[in-house]
Write a structure and sequence with these properties.
alpha/beta, TIM Barrel, 10-stranded parallel sheet, 11 helices, 15% strand
């Protein structure tokens, strides 16, 4: 969707925007379902990147202890517990710049994925940059979706990180799509961006062909020791507007309430669901930050008349529109 139309939508009177977003949501997601996802850090800390928001960067003193790649048995224990608690997607994150085919760590990840994929949940991984060969190997091992956020607008990106570029992110997303994986790709609000940066981020996301299968909307959790530890918070109504515009621009995409949900009241979360959010990270921890407890989430869903979505580990990735370019331009 063009920036001009996104700008028009975002600046509608609040209830007019919600009304339009709700109509799009009910047309495309009539079952009142919410996808429950569990996120596990399978390798924590020691990352060589300098993302200004991240507690896991080795460049900042944040108190996060570096941990090596988890053993498969330990990951499987967490994955089985996630399934028993109702999660239908199991997401595994590793604090790396990227992975390369033929390396011991990548072979270990592939082995873990193969076993997790037998549990009947959707399998998502986020491992940093991917080449085409690595993407195909992950798909073959059983990965349902690859997470790689663009974080913010192209224009603001260099203010966030210097160790890779916005186009590096786009290349990884393209490789994941070309390998046949669904793409989970969103951003973070509160990185010092302005409202126009948020709309440009949504313009990029909605311009993907195919559009992302899921779009995580994260709120910055300022981490002491990072360059963004003193960043201002995000107004709840601004968050809801972003979710509503995302829903209109990407009708068939799951919009996921992700990091920062811990800071939202149940009333604020209800507004987000009404505006079009239909996926959450579920459980008490997101990589290194807090998240509402599972029982608390289930109580709220019940209060709102929402139900957990069934898993679909064999789901096909969204299909590209042959009449449109595959990706936004990579410079």
């Amino acid at each position: 969707m063009l920036h001009s139309e996104l700008h028009r939508l975002y600046h509608l009177p609040f209830f007019d925007l919600l009304k339009q977003a709700r109509a799009v949501h009910e047309k495309n997601w009539p079952e009142r379902e919410v996808q429950l996802c569990t996120l596990l850090s399978i390798k924590t800390g020691g990352c060589s990147e300098d993302c200004g928001y991240c507690a896991q960067s080795s460049r900042y003193s944040t108190g996060i202890q570096r941990e090596d790649l988890m053993e498969k048995a330990d990951v499987m224990e967490k994955a089985r517990a996630a399934k028993e608690n109702g999660s239908t997607r199991f997401c595994m994150g590793a604090a790396w710049k990227g992975v390369r085919q033929g390396t011991p760590k990548f072979d270990q990840v592939l082995d873990i994925v193969r076993d997790v994929s037998t549990l009947g949940m959707e399998v998502c991984v986020t491992l940093g940059e991917l080449g085409g060969e690595e993407a195909r190997a992950l798909k073959e091992a059983g990965v349902t979706a690859y997470n790689h956020n663009i974080d913010t607008s192209r224009e603001h990106y260099a203010n966030i990180v210097s160790t890779h570029t916005f186009d590096d992110r786009l290349r990884t997303i393209r490789h994941a799509q070309e390998a046949g994986m669904s793409v989970c790709c969103g951003g973070i609000l509160g990185l010092g961006e302005n409202k126009d940066d948020r709309l440009k981020m949504l313009e990029t996301l909605s311009g993907f062909n195919p559009q992302p299968e899921s779009v995580p909307v994260n709120l910055l959790m300022p981490i002491k020791g990072t360059p963004m530890e003193n960043n201002d918070g995000v107004d709840v109504f601004d968050l809801v507007r972003v979710i509503a515009v995302a829903r209109i621009a990407m009708p068939k995409t799951k919009v996921r309430l992700s990091a920062g949900r811990y800071s939202l009241s149940k009333e604020a979360q209800a507004l987000c669901y009404f505006a079009g959010a239909n996926s959450i990270f579920y459980g008490e921890k997101l990589l290194t930050t807090k998240n509402p407890g599972a029982n608390e989430d289930m109580r709220l869903l019940k209060e709102l008349g929402l139900v957990a979505q069934a898993p679909n580990p064999a789901m096909d990735a969204p299909e590209a529109d042959e009449a449109r370019p595959l990706m936004p331009c990579i410079i």
